[in-house]
Amino acid sequence: MEIERKFLVRALPPRLEQYPFHLIEQAYLCTHPVVRIRRQDDTFILTYKGEGLMTREEYNLPLTKEGYCHLLEKKDGNILTKKRYLIPLSDHLTAELDIFEGKFSGLKIVEVEFPDEEQANAFTAPDWFGTDVTFSNAFHNSVLSTLESWDADTYGLS
Mean pLDDT throughout 131-147? Predict the structure, then answer.
């Protein structure tokens, strides 16, 4: 089960360069239900996500590079590329800050995963977090993958 809150980013946190990061490329084979393939650095993953906004089922399976490349040819829509920074927060939580590249350049989303819904609902976001978009699917990566065009101005992000 995945329990996460999602926010737009008001301002980048100080000293961003000190935090570890991953380079991510991902695409979708299906968006209802969500079936995603991802390359994260040198790791390849197939993911199924169930319905839901803050809480939903998620299953990850390892892929080989060859399997990833084969499935990438079958993707629907956009390939998303982003740099994901891992920023420690209080209570043993981690902010996963995604800075999108390519077609979605200018988009910055931060997610925090929680062990339970109670902790997710009680979470107070740091000052650098922006608007809470947890309960809107507009910023789900699977939805972004279906957009023919995207402009940061349309979302008030530039």
Answer: 95
